[in-house]
Amino acid sequence: MITNILREELWHKATLPTDVTIEQVIHNLNQVALKIVLIINEAGELQGTISDGDIRRGLLKGLGLGSPIISIIHRNALVVPPEMKREMVLQLMTANKIHQIPVVNEHRRLVGLHLWDEITTLPKRSNLMVIMAGGIGKRLLPHTENCPKPLLLVAGKPMLEHIIERAKSEGFNHFVLAIHHFGHMIEDYFGNGEHLGVQIDYLREQSPLGTAGALGLLSPRPALPFLVTNGDVMTDIHYGELLDFHIRNGAAATMAVRVHEWHHPFGVVQTQGIEIVGFEEKPVLRSHINAGVYAFNPDALEILDENTHCDMPVLFSHLQNMAKRTVAYPMHEPWLDVGRPDDLIEARLRTVKGTS
């Protein structure tokens, strides 16, 4: 799993027990060069941190290099849990003007360290991202009469390009585009992806295979968990966090979902038989809807037959019938399924206002 937590072999070198001296801490700061020392007990529980500033304040109070560190440990250091998202960690660092935050689990056992340089530099991800771009786009006529839906322009560039650029900004660099309707136009525009600084390959559907069927054409099969998104979904979702969530939860398949609210236009009468038992005035019904973005383990593809039509709900149902774990990833970020002319107008307006 890709994570923004500093790799263990490095932060572990910055840990010391509680019975060391100030001189040993100074040596660690110089050797490891993380600008922080993590003090732990025998059980691996974080007792506090020591920085260069803590040492200087101790020396000003008359402590020597051979003095124990007990009185200079910063015992109320800000810590975060492993599941905290990158953006929140970055906000905490900025608000508190600090460049290091220890990561501890529910037992306060030290499990990692966030550093400013690490958290502000997204890692490269070798995971594949498949984009379903073969739809005909009938509901978007006449816009799609001579243009495939994913190539419709939003803020001067195709929707598909927005998706690729956003994923690229999160470290993804290998994309596979599933194409059918006007597929040659998509290939002509994107080519091998070199002009975008990414690698692009293609799955060419001879006939429409549904929202999941094209995955059966993947050859070779991905070696790592991978992402799938519809080519008409404009969203600010963090693709990397979805993938990390999928891996952390040990799922075979993960579906991004959104809360959808429907306001009933009338007052609802609740009855039992002919008896009126209650009233609800114009209730709001809430449900989760499929956001068109997914994560899969490679073995989820084993149930797909090549060149056989399959939609995503069917694929998820088959996995569930095989006792494979399928989970929902609740998302709150801006999202728009560009399926109708009004949606295209909305996508263009949102982009003008500075959001996807």
In short:
By secondary structure, the chain is α/β, with parallel strands linked by helices. Helices cover 26% and strands 26% of the residues.
What do you see in this structure?
This protein is an alpha/beta fold and 356 residues long. The chain folds into 2 domains: 8-119, CBS-domain (Roll), CATH 3.10.580.10; 129-352, Spore Coat Polysaccharide Biosynthesis Protein SpsA, Chain A, CATH 3.90.550. 26% of the residues lie in helices and 26% in strands. The protein contains 11 helices and 18 strands. Strands 10-9-6-11-16-13-17 form a 7-stranded mixed beta sheet. A 3-stranded mixed beta sheet has the order 1-2-3. Strands 4-5 form a two-stranded antiparallel sheet. Strand 4 (100-104) and strand 5 form a beta hairpin. Residues 352-356 have low confidence and may be disordered.
For this structure, the CATH topology of the largest domain is Spore Coat Polysaccharide Biosynthesis Protein SpsA, Chain A
Characterize the biggest β-sheet. 7 strands, mixed
User: Which range does the strand content fall in?
Assistant: 25-35%
Count of β-strands: 18
Radius of gyration (Å) = 26 Å
Q: Strand sequence of the main sheet, in spatial order?
A: 10-9-6-11-16-13-17
User: Could you give the distance between the termini?
Assistant: 27 Å
Number of domains: 2
Low-confidence stretches: 352-356
Q: What is the N-to-C succession of helices and strands?
A: HEHEEHHEEHEEEHEHEHEEHEEEEHEEH
CATH superfamily of the largest domain: Spore Coat Polysaccharide Biosynthesis Protein SpsA, Chain A
Can you give the mean pLDDT?
89
User: What form results from the Cα inertia axes?
Assistant: globular
CATH architecture of the largest domain: Alpha-Beta Complex
CATH class of the largest domain: Alpha Beta
Helical residue percent? Answer: 25-40%
What is the count of helical runs? Answer: 11
Structural class, by secondary structure, is alpha/beta
The oligomeric state is single chain
